[in-house]
């Protein structure tokens, strides 16, 4: 097993050129805002008043070099996997027998959304935990989401093809005979595919959702409600929750699956436009109680946005949705459950489905519902705090849940 003393690659720190940063500031200074009357409550989308302040700070106050230095406190590597350029961040484990753990982010995440859980997972004793729970933490950027740069030569990129890349990275490039995996959002289904196709070579997986692997299959995969109509006999709270979730997800799924390339022309040219598209999701999907900066500071928001901007990666990041449908998932075997590796799950009540109100109800709904049959689930948890970006919003819960998933499953 590879350890901290014989890692097979040489570190390559993250660096964004001065030319890219100068061009960004020039474009921000030339932003032409839209007319946006009567939108102070975000009901039409991101208000110009909110975006204008953030654009000004991005142009005149935000310090990417400070963020870059914090990012480079960790090891960074670049390598080719099956001809695809891959970047990943690493924190070596400190413990008697750290096991390798690959963590995969989603959209509109970056690899840096894992930054709050890396240290306690790698060095649990330094955070009041048991050194026996240590992991050697690998955090890649999804290809086309940022570093090492614009993704070319992989126009059919999608989640199950990335799972094959990650398995090659962990076993052939890094030399691990067996490893663990975790993920959320797109990263959750990448991780589930690892647990499906490569179960014998994983200690287990831990995911932040229980989406079935065929979630994006079918002619109306962009419809989050799966074509289920609103009906007059539905309880008022169920109906309201369905409408709320439509507002949260409908435009995102429909545009990314059906028209992402068209949108990308604007977002690749305008950093203000890019920021608006990302900001709406960060606001709507996080459990922020109406105060986005209680979850993401201005600097946090702009660090993630700069990673997208600097590498011109918005188009390829959105391509994952269309390609999950255009190149639909097919099973690698017919055994049940579909995901045979041991599976841990972390849910949050902020994302409860209609009719489910508490954390206990969320766990029961999963364990007794159709999604449970997909997974060899061994550790199911739900929490009242946190939204879609669980490892960022409630890192203690994520770390604790993940550790429990792998206890007793180490070599």
UniProtKB/TrEMBL annotation:
Any single Pfam family the record assigns to this protein: EHN
GO biological process: epoxide metabolic process
Key words of the record: Aromatic hydrocarbons catabolism, Hydrolase
Metal-binding found in the keyword field: no
Catalytic residues as annotated in Swiss-Prot or TrEMBL: 185, 321, 388
Gene3D superfamilies cross-referenced by the UniProt entry: alpha/beta hydrolase
Residues covered by the Epoxide hydrolase N-terminal domain: 10-113
GO terms of molecular function: epoxide hydrolase activity
PANTHER family linked to this entry: EPOXIDE HYDROLASE (PTHR21661:SF35), EPOXIDE HYDROLASE 1-RELATED (PTHR21661)
Family as reported in the entry's similarity comment: Belongs to the peptidase S33 family.
Protein name (database record): Multidrug MFS transporter
Organism of provenance: Streptomyces lucensis JCM 4490
Lineage per the UniProt record: Bacteria, Bacillati, Actinomycetota, Actinomycetes, Kitasatosporales
């Amino acid at each position: 097993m590879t350890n901290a003393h014989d890692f097979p690659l040489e570190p390559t720190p993250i660096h964004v050129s001065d030319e890219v940063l100068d061009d960004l500031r020039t474009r921000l200074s030339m932003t032409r805002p839209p007319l946006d009357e009567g939108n102070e409550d975000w009901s039409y989308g991101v208000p110009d008043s909110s975006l204008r302040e953030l654009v000004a700070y991005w142009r005149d106050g935000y310090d990417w070099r400070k963020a870059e230095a914090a990012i480079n406190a960790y090891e960074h590597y670049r390598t080719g996997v099956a001809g695809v350029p891959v970047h990943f961040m690493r924190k070596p484990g400190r413990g008697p027998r750290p096991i390798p753990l690959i963590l995969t982010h989603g959209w509109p995440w970056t690899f840096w959304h894992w930054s709050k859980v890396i240290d306690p997972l790698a060095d649990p004793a330094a955070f009041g935990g048991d050194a026996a729970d240590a992991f050697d933490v690998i955090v890649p950027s999804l290809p086309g989401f940022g570093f090492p740069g614009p993704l070319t030569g992989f126009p059919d990129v999608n989640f199950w093809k990335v799972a094959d890349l990650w398995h090659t990275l962990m076993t052939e490039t890094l030399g691990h005979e067996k490893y663990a995996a975790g993920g959320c959002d797109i990263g959750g289904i990448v991780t589930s595919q690892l647990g499906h196709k490569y179960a014998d070579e994983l200690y287990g997986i831990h995911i932040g959702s229980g989406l079935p692997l065929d979630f994006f299959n079918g002619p109306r995969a962009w419809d989050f409600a799966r074509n289920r109509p609103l009906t007059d006999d539905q309880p008022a709270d169920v109906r309201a929750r369905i409408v709320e979730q439509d507002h949260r997800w409908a435009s995102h799924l429909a545009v990314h699956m059906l028209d992402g390339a068209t949108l990308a022309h604007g977002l690749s040219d305008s950093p203000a436009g890019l920021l608006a598209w990302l900001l709406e999701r960060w606001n709507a999907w996080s459990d922020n109680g109406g105060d986005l900066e209680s979850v993401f500071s201005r600097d946090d928001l702009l660090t993630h946005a700069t990673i997208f901007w600097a590498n011109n990666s918005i188009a390829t990041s959105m391509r994952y949705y269309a390609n999950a449908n255009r190149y639909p998932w097919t099973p690698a075997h017919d055994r049940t459950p579909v995901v045979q590796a041991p599976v841990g799950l972390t849910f949050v009540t902020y994302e409860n489905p209609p009719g489910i109100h508490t954390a206990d109800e969320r766990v029961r709904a999963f364990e007794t519902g159709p999604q449970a049959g997909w997974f060899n689930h061994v550790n199911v948890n739900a929490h009242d705090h946190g939204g879609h970006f669980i490892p960022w919003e409630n890192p203690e819960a994520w770390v604790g849940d993940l550790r429990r998933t792998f206890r007793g499953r180490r070599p």
